[in-house]
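Summary of Year 1 activities. Much of the first year was spent building the evaluation harness for sequence design. The harness presents a backbone, in tokenized form, and records the residue chosen at every position. We chose the following record to illustrate the format because it has been used consistently in internal testing since the harness was completed.
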């Protein structure tokens, strides 16, 4: 008698309306630049364990089910996100410490651009990659490249908070608080009255007899959004954190 094999899929979940839109763009325009590839980079100074940081990234993927989700269309055409029980941790290490200052910057910028241009396969999680670039013995750049369908701007700091906690505790999650699963929000969303919401918008837009005028499309070359490097003082950082 054969033992039952546990499914690699932990759960199947619906998508939010915003996720549905992002998935549509990713599948419809699969050969061009994906503008929903997001990149977050951080400069780290001081002693650093690459092995420990990689383990912290893996622990973060295990903790957050949404980061283990892949996205596809069912046979009936409806989208679904399938959360895998286990995923590999996409990890790259690059040592630029022997380069000149100008050489380091050139190669770092080239690496960042390549990462941003490299599309994710939506059905093959995780839709997130980690990279550690050694600039000097006590100076590193840590880069997370991920698809916007996983995280918004409010969620990223929470994920980073857990990642750093895992690094400090060497993978022990005892000090982390309880986690509210993303699936809880999806269940709440499924209980909302969509027809009532649509009716409210119809009432709000009643009387408009033509669409909003927009500028005609102009020919342009495909390109990713530009990069901007800004260094904030410790005082400014504390002030922004307090305001947020």
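For this record, the design step produced the sequence shown next.
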């Amino acid at each position: 008698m054969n033992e039952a094999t546990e499914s690699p899929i932990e759960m199947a979940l619906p998508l939010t309306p915003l996720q549905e839109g992002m998935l549509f763009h990713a599948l419809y325009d699969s050969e061009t630049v994906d503008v929903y590839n997001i990149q977050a980079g951080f400069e780290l100074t001081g002693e650093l364990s690459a092995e420990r940081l990689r383990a912290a990234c893996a622990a973060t993927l295990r903790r957050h089910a949404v980061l283990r989700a892949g996205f596809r269309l069912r046979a009936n055409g409806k989208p679904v996100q399938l959360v895998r029980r286990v995923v590999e941790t996409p990890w790259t290490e690059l040592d630029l410490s022997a380069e000149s200052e100008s050489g380091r910057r050139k190669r770092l910028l080239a690496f960042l651009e390549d990462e941003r241009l490299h599309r994710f396969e939506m059905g093959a999680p995780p839709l997130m990659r980690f990279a550690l670039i050694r600039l000097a013995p006590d100076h590193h750049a840590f880069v997370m490249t991920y698809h916007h369908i996983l995280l918004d701007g409010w969620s990223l700091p929470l994920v980073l908070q857990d990642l750093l906690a895992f690094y400090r505790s060497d993978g022990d999650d005892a000090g982390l608080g309880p986690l509210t699963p993303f699936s809880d929000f999806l269940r709440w969303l499924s209980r909302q009255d969509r027809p009532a919401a649509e009716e409210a918008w119809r009432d709000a837009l009643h009387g408009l007899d033509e669409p909003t005028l927009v500028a005609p499309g102009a020919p342009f070359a495909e390109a990713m959004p530009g990069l901007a490097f800004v260094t904030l003082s410790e005082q400014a950082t504390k002030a922004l954190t307090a305001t947020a």
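The CA atoms of residues 195 and 234 lie 49 Å apart. Quantitative recovery figures across the full test set are reported in Table 2.
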